Amino acid sequence: MQAQILAPAAVLVLWSLVMLFWMAGTRLPAIKKAGNGLGEAKPGGRGQDLEGVIPDNVQWKAHNYAHLMEQPTIFYPAVIILAIMGAGAVDVTLAWIYVALRIIHSVYQATVNKVPVRFLIFVVSSIVMVILALRAVMVTLFANPGVL
């Protein structure tokens, strides 16, 4: 089961890169259209500086990319812990559910972005993340190291 639990993590890494390119592919033309080319950006400028400068629906992709750099950072070590300790079928299923929900969240936030629905998707994925984290704690805390 070790490889199977790592597959959802690999997919989420790849999805994060998809969102990076989607963000860049919509943001860069919007920046150019707004007359704020990258060469004209003030030193030390950040993506947040584009709020109100380029259309909100373009910024949604950037917001989601930032989200993918937040909570999933605890998903990755949980999955690695489970892989090392021996993930079960339930762990693999939960990992895939988490990844599916994060992808759904991304697509929804990048396109429709109605907060109540987006929040519900986030809450459900967070519950799955809590379960994964608890399972990672359980397999480590209650591990039977055996006799050498």
Give an account of the 3D structure.
26% of the residues are buried. The chain is mostly helical and 148 residues long. The protein is 74% helix and 0% strand. The protein contains five helices and no strands. It has one domain: Four Helix Bundle (Hemerythrin (Met), subunit A). The two termini are 24 Å apart. The mean pLDDT is 91.
Q: Which properties best describe this structure?
A:
mainly alpha; 148 residues; Four Helix Bundle (Hemerythrin (Met), subunit A); 5 helices; elongated; 0% strand; single chain
Overall, the morphology is elongated
Q: Mean of residue pLDDT? A: 91
Low-confidence stretches are none
The CATH architecture classification is Up-down Bundle
* CATH level 1 class label: Mainly Alpha
Biggest sheet architecture: none
Q: State the helicity in percent bands.
A: over 70%
Spell the H/E element sequence: HHHHH
Reported by name, the CATH topology is: Four Helix Bundle (Hemerythrin (Met), subunit A)
Kindly report how far apart the N and C termini lie: 24 Å
Number of strands: 0
Which class of secondary structure composition applies to the elements? mainly alpha
Number of domains: 1
Rg of Cα set: 19 Å
Number of helices: 5
Strand content: under 5%
Transmembrane segments: 6-24, 74-99, 119-143
Keywords: Membrane, Transmembrane, Transmembrane helix
InterPro entries: MAPEG-like_dom_sf (IPR023352), Membr-assoc_MAPEG (IPR001129)
Subcellular location: Membrane
